[in-house]
Specification:
There is one protein chain. With 188 residues, the chain is mostly beta strands. It is built from no helices and 16 strands. It has a 4-stranded antiparallel beta sheet, with no helix packed on it. It has a 4-stranded antiparallel beta sheet with strand order 5-6-7-8, with no helix packed on it. Strands 9-10-11-12 form a 4-stranded antiparallel beta sheet, with no helix packed on it. Strand 6 and strand 7 form a beta hairpin. It is globular, with a radius of gyration of 16 Å. The two termini are 28 Å apart.
């Protein structure tokens, strides 16, 4: 066990990725409202990249080594930062106070999903393209996502009905609207 010297913003959650070398990288919102990273058991760093207060970043390990993090910046836009120091301001609007989800495939490609500022599930591809679905989300909630071995993704959201909905994302997407009620304003 270890303790970092970095403070975390209250009400936020860290995200951790297991890297290909067997170590872990954590991303979190520092108590300065900036993106912070900690190589667990090793170095820590706070970037100068501002985050929307009270949001949490997502991080995914890349199969060739390294990682990529996604977060809502302080202008309510989806922003990406990776282990090489590359920064991508996607200029895609997010619902304030929400957090993205990210998952990577074995070939190094990845997708990020988030609630956009129109309260629907939207996304960004590692190729640089973006997409919007017709999946309505409950305001103030965030999606979760996992990569599947066939190159597709499974996503869970709180729909605007307050029920759980799952989305299978490949070339297109299919939605499974359940009748499983969720506590309002919670995220799967």
């Amino acid at each position: 066990s270890f303790t970092t010297t970095l403070g975390m913003m209250a009400g936020t959650s860290p995200s951790v990725a297991l890297l290909t070398d067997g170590t872990d990288e954590a991303a979190f919102e520092a108590n300065t409202d900036h993106l912070a990273l900690s190589h667990l058991g090793g170095g820590t760093a706070v970037t100068t990249l501002g985050m929307d207060p009270g949001t949490s970043p997502a991080i995914a390990a890349l199969p060739g080594g390294g990682w990529v993090a996604a977060f809502q910046d302080n202008a309510s836009k989806l922003y990406l930062y990776d282990s090489k120091g590359d920064k991508i301001n996607t200029d895609l609007g997010m619902d304030p106070g929400t957090s993205p989800a990210i998952a990577a495939q074995p070939d190094g490609s990845f997708r990020v999903v988030f609630q956009d500022n129109d309260h629907v599930l939207a996304g960004y591809n590692s190729s640089g393209s973006s997409f919007t679905t017709s999946v309505g989300m409950r305001a103030g909630t965030s999606p979760s996502m996992a990569a599947k071995s066939d190159g597709t993704y499974e996503i869970a959201v709180q729909a605007n009905t307050t029920d759980l909905a799952t989305v299978h994302l490949g070339q297109g997407y299919t939605v499974n609207a359940t009748t499983l009620g969720m506590d309002p304003a919670t995220s799967p």
